[in-house]
Structure formats: C-alpha cells, structure tokens
Amino acid sequence: MSVVMPLMNKNYLTKINNSNYVWCPDGHFTFDFLSCDESSKCGSQSFLLNCETSMAGKRSVITAMFMCLHSSQTLHFSLVCDFRPDCLDGSDENFCSRDYNCTGFTCLNGQCVDSHKLCDVNRDCWDGSDEDCVVFRTWNINLTSFAYPPAVIDFDQQTDVTYKELNSSDSCPEMHFRCPPEGYCLPVYVRCNGVYDCPYHEDEEDCASYTCPGFYRCRASTVCVHVDHMCDGRPQCPQHDDELFCELSCPQGCVCQGLAFVCSEKFNMQKFPAMRYLDASGSGMTTRDLSPSINLVWLSLAACKLQILSNMSLPSLQTLDLSDNLIRSLDMSYFMQFKNLRVLRLAGNPLQSLFTSNVPVIGIVDEVYRDRYVWHEQSWTSGYLCQIVGFLYFLSSEVSILTLLLMTIERLLPKGYVSCVLPAGFTSLEPEHCTAHSFAHAFRSLYGAQG
C-alpha cells in the first residue's frame, strides 16, 4: 500500500506563483536560477551556455553560465564559490578567495557555520567536519503531547519531536503525508530521504519515479519540501537549498537570478556582498562604483562610457567585460591585480595604445622565482600574466620589424607603391583601376594618425 500524499489548494499555488519559483515539466517547482541546472530536473539541457528566465511581472533575464575548466559542465554562478564542488574537477571552488574572519565554527574546508549547529546530526559543513563529534545533541520528545495515530508528527526549530492529535475522519495537513493504512502524518520532506520512517517502509517506495508534484524538489535529490517549510531556519534538503537566499533582496533597477544580478542603473554594491555575477552593461556604473568583493566572479561594465579604470579589489574575478566603452589607452599591467582573470573583453573601444608600465616583467619574475623557478614553472607559464607579457613582447617586436621594412621599401621606391583593385565583371586590368600610395601615408594610417 502506498503513502497518501496531500492535495494542493488554490492559496498554496498562488503563494508559489507570486515568488521567485518556477514550475517544472514534472510538476514540481524550483528556484528560477535552478531551472537552468541539470541536477534540479527542471528540463534543462546539459552544457547550457546561458540561463534565460522569465518571472511573472518581471522582465526576462539572460545570464552567462560558469564553465568548468576541465570538464564538459556548466553551472549557474549562484553555485560557484559556495564551498561545495559541483564541477567534477573542482574548478568552481579551487580559485575562490575566502573570508577567514569567522565568529562561529570554521570547517576544515574553510566554511563558517554557526556554533549552535555543531553536533546536531545535520551536516552544515560540506565536508562534515561539524559532525565529527563524540557526543551529539539529543532529540527531545514531549511526552505530555504524545499521541497515538491518527496524529501529526512534526519537528520544531530545535528538532524536537511534537505531536498533534487528529480525528479519525481528518486528513493530514497539506505539509504531511500519511503512512498507510491509518498511521501517523509525517512531514513531506521525510519521504524518499533514504531513511525508513513508516513502520513498513512505504515512505521509501517508488522513489525513482516520484517527482515531487506540487512541492519543491531538492537539488540532486528525491527529497520534496512544502513551500511553508522553505526558509524556516531548518534545512530539509541534503544541500540545504531550501534555505537559500531567504533574506536576499534584489536592488532597484536590477533583475536577479539568485546571486546573479542584471542591472540597468547604479546601486550600492556593499549591501550585496554575496553577489557572484554582475551584468551592469549600459548602467553608467564605473569602476569607482564597485565595492571590494571576494565573491564576485563575473563582471560586465560594457557600454558604460568608461574612459579611465580605477583599481578594483575583486580577487575572485574570472571574467571582465569592458567592451564598447571609450578607453583609448590601456596599461595592461592594470590587470595584474586580478590573479584569477581568465576572460577579458575590450572590443569596441577606440584603443590607440596598449602598453605595460612594468617593462622589466621578466626580470621581476626572475628575481621572485630565483633558485626555485623549477617548482613554479607550470603555474607561471600557464598563467594569464605570462601570456599577456608574451603577446606584448611579440607584438612589439613584430611592429618594430614592420616599421623598418616599410621605411626600407619607401627609400628603395620613392614613389611609394601601387595597389590595383579589379572591379566585379572585369577580366582585364586597366591603368584606371590602380592607385599610387605613399608608404609613409600607409604607416600613419596603421597607427590612426592624421595625414
């Protein structure tokens, strides 16, 4: 005999529709940003490059996805730098800067959790170090409220067991299901959680095909959660995603997917330290408007009319889009402050000069790695700074050779050179198709000079 699941009323469905949740094809709901997550079973395809969501009463929004470094996976940026590796190669966590000023318990992986969550049988550290205990907190059963079935069993904020009597004709509350035939009403989140709760184990039957219709489906899990148990201060999902972003608001002028913000106007970034992704294209924000952040991984200030770049304290930044601005001159050593930068976009700027104020970079590296370069060779040669320096030195040498070549040819051919363009449909070359040019003029045009 199967367990009896509750029916959803109209008010329940309205509550979900007016939130940041989306309905999935199998009938469960999830966070808008997790609709692009393959592990959330919301119809998402594998290896998505962008996440597009559209909420009732809000404009649709598209954000880029985080690409794992050495595996064919993509993740929403809200799942990056959360102390739990989701990429098979761990590349969503191994570059992240951390805040080591923990006032609670510091997990072995660097995560910080409240001290009162130690030894409570719930894994709050993703490495489980908060439950590496000799003595665990005990659960209390209030015998004064104990009731035989039919009755409702629940857990309070301290995980103590509570009972509430039911009449034999009463149905279970919509947050509970009934163990057959006339057993206790248990919270929905204990069904298919890998633990036998009903006397005859019916709560763990048919879990492979159960899709949590009408409930929140925990990420990468078969556990279901009623909307009233979301953000109740007690995690029911294995990855605690039912307690995600409970106090997070979205700034005015922005549309948010979890920790990914797409903004059309300036806002106080200091109020959103957990933000992972910021697309401020066309917002008018400048580098001076950005507060220091150890969590920001993706940033776009495209089309913000930038001319000058100020220093930014963004140690975890991997993608920086500065395209379509008004930058004319750029010191490439500016980007040395972003030690994890992987993608830099500068297209659409009227750049006239790229230079580095740190010309003796190789000499500095030689001094830093003196007598121990062999131990750092791979990290240096594969790093973005080495590639930038190599490109600049290569470009400098090629431009120098080209300059000498043009000067030499112009001295040999004082009249310059002749270019001929054959119009469409012509099969023979005539003198009027050719134009004489000065090499000096060509050289000045190459560098954008007048004349």
Automatic annotation (TrEMBL):
Disulfide bonds join C81-C96, C107-C125, C192-C207, C212-C224, C231-C246. Keywords: Disulfide bond, Membrane, Repeat, Transmembrane, Transmembrane helix. InterPro entries: LDL_receptor-like_sf, LDLR, LDLR_class-A_CS, LDrepeatLR_classA_rpt, Leu-rich_rpt, LRR_dom_sf. Its main location: membrane. One of its GO terms (cellular component) is plasma membrane. The keyword Repeat applies. The keyword ATP-binding does not apply. PROSITE patterns: LDLRA_1, LDLRA_2, LRR. Coiled coil: none annotated. It is found in: Endomembrane system; Membrane. Pfam families: Ldl_recept_a, LRR_8. GO terms for biological process: vesicle-mediated transport. It is a single-pass membrane protein. It comes from the Eukaryota. This is Uncharacterized protein. It comes from Pomacea canaliculata (Golden apple snail).
